[in-house]
């Protein structure tokens, strides 16, 4: 059986699993009966769509929402997956096409409204076509006490019995009574393997810091945790080697790991990491799949991860044993520029690029968060929570300031120089610094020349970084990373909206913090 990750990328266009997805996909693929509770927007559909491709036979998907079924079928078909729906919204032609595909044994996923189960003909058809599993979306509709009760959902249990195939039930409704009812009605009271949401990993301390001598920042973080196993993720292969050497020179037991090494060398590192205490692996994202070391005490990102999903997955390798673990993510304007250009220059179709930019924005939003980081992280995955008390921002709330004026100054400098320059030159204009470039271009005659003197270069760098983080500015790949204004900035430029930023005190709190271990 092929591993799920190539399909995840090739068919669904995702680089990594969302929290919880991988475990659920594995269980469903292996034919277990599964009950999974995931928040809305958490990514439930992948948890049956991906296994459907890995398993034999047709997966019957029962869902009460016709529009949603049609959406999913369209999405799957666009991705090249044979899927069809039998709903009351079908035209006769559509229904005929679905039947023909079923008879020909081509269909992998058949979406069906529960009402269909009332017909004997449907049941006969399902027996004939070789159903491999049943997936039930919105499984709480089986609950007679809930407001979404659908009497036809009660037939699903019969269907499972008649076909004798595994069933995977999904819902966002988590209360215990509903769960019990689902187990009773869909699984005949025999407890399925249950996944109860809860993406929070409260034992993992979260921290982000702007890059300010990143090598030293990583060395300090590692030294404060000397003797404990950790992973440092880097953006490039070359960097893993350089940083592993720096850590070794500093007296740590460290080695590097990346996709350019031959498989034997990689296996050696994996085995050492599993067996040795206190080894640091400096790696690209190639390191991760299949590591199940429970006592990784810390994970550092020397470069910004690719998306909020990757971030969650990578930090999630720490502290699987439930004991305190710590993370530190470094980021700077170069990371933002690099990640943006990777997306823009990639081969993905335009819609996917837009989605990738949005996922990157979500991570940048987390990096520049104004309040509890865990709250922001969980909110992205659809969970609401209280401030956690176990992140850098809960411990040291950032000092905020109304940055409307400097942000407008920066936007004005960008527009007056026609979006041809990067943060360095713009800062020289704003602070009224005399450089050859300023003189040559006549930028000392701009009305914005020197208007931002009250902020020093460092503060401007923090302002530009946060403006990029909020997606007010994007580096233009065709102009060597010159900063371009986005539409998000328009209301601020026009004076219709104010903006609050963090005063960057380049806190070293994350590094100085006494290690939990
Ligand atoms: P729900 O749990 O509400 O049914 P969906 O399955 O519709 O959620 O997924 C919600 C959104 O999350 C969709 O836009 C989907 O494309 C996106 N998504 C799902 N899985 C992933 C993933 N592994 N990486 C990135 N985005 C994902
Ligand atoms: Zn917090």
Name the structural class: alpha/beta
Count of discrete alpha- or pi-helical segments spanning 4 or more residues = 22
Overall average residue pLDDT: 90
Helix fraction bin: 40-55%
Describe this protein's structure:
With 517 residues, the protein is an alpha/beta fold. It has helices at residues 4-10, 21-29, 44-54, 66-78, 92-103, 120-128, 155-163, 176-187, 214-223, 237-249, 263-275, 308-315, 333-345, 350-367, 373-380, 392-395, 404-416, 423-431, 436-441, 457-469, 490-493, 509-512, and strands at residues 34-37, 58-62, 83-86, 109-112, 131-136, 167-171, 193-195, 204-205, 208-210, 230-233, 253-257, 279-283, 298-301, 325-331, 400-402, 473-476, 482-485, 500-502. The strands form 4 sheets. The chain has a 7-stranded parallel β-sheet with strand order 3-4-2-5-6-1-7, sandwiched between helices. The chain is globular and about 85 Å long. Residues 506-512 have low confidence and may be disordered. Keywords: ATP-binding, DNA damage, DNA recombination, DNA repair, DNA-binding, Helicase, Hydrolase, Isomerase, Metal-binding, Nucleotide-binding, Zinc. Residues 25-192 form the Helicase ATP-binding domain. GO terms for molecular function: 3'-5' DNA helicase activity; ATP binding; DNA binding; four-way junction helicase activity; hydrolase activity; metal ion binding.
What's a concise summary of this model?
With 517 residues, this protein is an alpha/beta fold.
Please outline the helices and strands.
Blueprint: H1 4-10, H2 21-29, E1 34-37, H3 44-54, E2 58-62, H4 66-78, E3 83-86, H5 92-103, E4 109-112, H6 120-128, E5 131-136, H7 155-163, E6 167-171, H8 176-187, E7 193-195, E8 204-205, E9 208-210, H9 214-223, E10 230-233, H10 237-249, E11 253-257, H11 263-275, E12 279-283, E13 298-301, H12 308-315, E14 325-331, H13 333-345, H14 350-367, H15 373-380, H16 392-395, E15 400-402, H17 404-416, H18 423-431, H19 436-441, H20 457-469, E16 473-476, E17 482-485, H21 490-493, E18 500-502, H22 509-512
Parallel strand pairs: 1-6, 1-7, 2-4, 2-5, 3-4, 5-6, 8-14, 9-14, 10-12, 10-13, 11-12, 13-14
Antiparallel strand pairs: 15-18, 16-17
Helix pairs in contact: 2-3, 13-14, 14-15, 17-18, 18-20
The structure holds adenosine-5'-diphosphate (ADP) and zinc ion (ZN).
Organism: Antarcticimicrobium sediminis
Protein name: DNA helicase RecQ
GO molecular function: 3'-5' DNA helicase activity; ATP binding; DNA binding; four-way junction helicase activity; hydrolase activity; metal ion binding
């Amino acid at each position: 059986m092929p591993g799920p990750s190539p399909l995840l990328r090739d068919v669904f266009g995702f680089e990594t699993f969302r929290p919880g997805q991988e475990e659920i996909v594995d269980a469903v693929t292996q034919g277990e009966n599964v009950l999974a509770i995931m928040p809305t927007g958490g990514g439930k559909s992948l948890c049956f769509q991906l296994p459907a491709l890995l398993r034999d036979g047709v997966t019957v998907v029962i869902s009460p929402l016709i529009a949603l079924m049609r959406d999913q079928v369209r999405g799957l078909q666009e991705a090249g997956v044979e899927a069809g729906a039998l709903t009351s919204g079908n035209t006769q032609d559509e229904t005929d096409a679905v039947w023909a595909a079923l008879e020909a044994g081509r269909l992998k996923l058949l979406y069906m409204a529960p009402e269909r189960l009332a017909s004997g003909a449907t049941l006969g058809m399902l027996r004939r076509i070789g159903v491999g599993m049943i997936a039930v979306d919105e499984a709480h509709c089986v609950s007679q006490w809930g407001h979404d009760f659908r009497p036809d959902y009660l037939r699903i249990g019969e269907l499972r019995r008649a076909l004798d195939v595994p069933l995977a039930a999904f819902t966002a409704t988590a209360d215990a009574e509903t769960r019990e009812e689902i187990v009773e009605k869909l699984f005949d009271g025999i407890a399925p393997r249950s996944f109860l949401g809860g993406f929070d990993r409260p034992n993992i301390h979260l921290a982000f810091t702007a890059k300010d001598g990143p090598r030293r920042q990583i060395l300090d973080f590692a030294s404060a945790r000397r003797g404990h196993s950790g992973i440092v993720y880097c953006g490039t292969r070359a960097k893993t080697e350089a940083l592993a050497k720096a850590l070794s020179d500093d007296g740590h037991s460290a080695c590097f790991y990346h996709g350019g090494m031959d498989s034997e060398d990689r296996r050696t590192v994996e085995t050492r990491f599993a067996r040795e205490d206190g080894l640091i692996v400096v790696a690209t994202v190639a390191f991760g799949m299949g590591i199940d070391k429970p006592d990784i005490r810390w994970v550092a990102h020397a470069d910004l991860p690719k998306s909020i999903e990757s971030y969650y997955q990578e930090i999630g390798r720490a502290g699987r044993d439930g004991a305190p673990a710590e993370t530190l993510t470094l980021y700077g304007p170069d990371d933002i520029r690099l990640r943006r250009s990777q997306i823009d220059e990639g081969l993905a179709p335009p819609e996917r690029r837009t989605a990738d930019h949005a996922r990157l924005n979500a991570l940048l939003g987390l990096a520049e968060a104004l309040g509890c980081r865990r709250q922001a992280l969980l909110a992205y995955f659809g969970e609401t929570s209280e401030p956690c008390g176990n992140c850098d921002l809960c411990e040291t709330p950032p000092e905020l300031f109304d940055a409307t004026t400097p942000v407008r100054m920066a936007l004005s400098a960008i527009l007056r120089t026609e979006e041809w320059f990067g943060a360095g030159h713009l800062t020289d204009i704003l602070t009224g610094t005399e450089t050859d470039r300023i003189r040559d271009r006549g930028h000392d005659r701009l009305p914005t020349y020197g208007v931002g003197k009250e902020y020093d270069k460092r503060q401007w760098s923090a302002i530009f970084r946060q403006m990029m983080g909020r997606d007010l500015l994007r580096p233009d790949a065709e102009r060597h990373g010159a900063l371009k204004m986005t539409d998000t900035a328009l209301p601020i430029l026009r004076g219709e909206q104010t903006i609050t930023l963090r005063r960057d005190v380049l806190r070293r709190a994350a590094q100085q913090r006494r290690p939990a271990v």
